[in-house]
Structure formats: C-alpha cells, structure tokens
C-alpha cells in the first residue's frame, strides 16, 4: 500500500512539474507578444509625430 501511494505521489509530482514547465513557456510567449505590441504602439506614436511635423512643414511651405 505504501509503495502504491509513493508511486502515485511521484506521478502527481511529475505531472505538476510538467504543467509548471508548460505554463512558463506560455508566460514567455505572452510576454514576447506584449513586448511586440508595446514596440508597435511606440512605432505608431512616432509615425503620428512625424506625420504631424510633415504636415506642419508642408503648410508652412504652401504659405510661402
């Protein structure tokens, strides 16, 4: 009986370890996605800034 309990606990421990490993991989993927989204937001913000500056410069040129 003790051997069976020990074997069962060993299987449970192994399964929990595997689950934790898979969860860590998923967390890393999610973090990478979040980082890419943040970088994309930064690029969009810079693009808007450049477009605004370009429009302002174009208006100044058209007034001349």
Task: Describe the structure in your own words.
By secondary structure, this protein is an all-alpha fold. Helix content is 97%, strand content 0%. The protein has one helix and no strands. It has one helix at 2-63. The longest helix has 62 residues, at 2-63.
Described by its quaternary structure, the protein is: single chain
Q: How would you characterize the largest beta sheet?
A: none
> Number of helical segments?
1
How many strands in all? 0
The 3D shape can be described as: rod-shaped
Descriptors:
64 residues; mainly alpha; 1 helix; 97% helix
Describe how the helices and strands are arranged.
Elements: H1 2-63
Give a short overview.
This protein is an all-alpha fold and 64 residues long.
């Amino acid at each position: 009986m003790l051997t069976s309990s020990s074997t069962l606990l060993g299987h449970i421990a192994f399964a929990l370890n595997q689950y934790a490993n898979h969860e860590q991989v998923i967390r890393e993927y999610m973090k990478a996605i979040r980082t890419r989204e943040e970088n994309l937001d930064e690029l969009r913000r810079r693009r808007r800034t450049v477009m605004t500056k370009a429009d302002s410069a174009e208006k100044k040129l058209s007034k001349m």
